[in-house]
Amino acid sequence: MSHTHPLTTTAFELPGYRVVQNYGVVRGIVVRSRSLLGNIGAGLQMLFGGNITLYTALCEQARQEAFDQMLAHAGQLGANAVIGVRYDATEIASGVTEVLCYGTAVRVEPMGS
């Protein structure tokens, strides 16, 4: 939970808050490639089966960077929350992957204020 923002959600509303302004779609995009050393290490892990921790760490880092970029984009627009957050990944070339994080930037206020 330490790598999330309290006012982001995959839902289209935040319980206890109301949307007062919609800024539209915001996104963060990261393009990553695997290193030769990473591929060798992951290849060794594949010999034993199970979770390939080197790839897991690479994927998590790319997702976090894309998420942070999306939040920065939302902040530049004046938003204080992002709803409808989604991730997408596409292999651009062998070993090169694009990670996209996107959502709708909004300004929210607590209900009752």
TrEMBL record:
It holds the Pfam family YbjQ_1. InterPro entries: UPF0145_dom_sf (IPR035439), UPF0145_YbjQ-like (IPR002765). Belongs to the UPF0145 family. This is UPF0145 protein G4L39_07345. It comes from Limisphaera ngatamarikiensis.
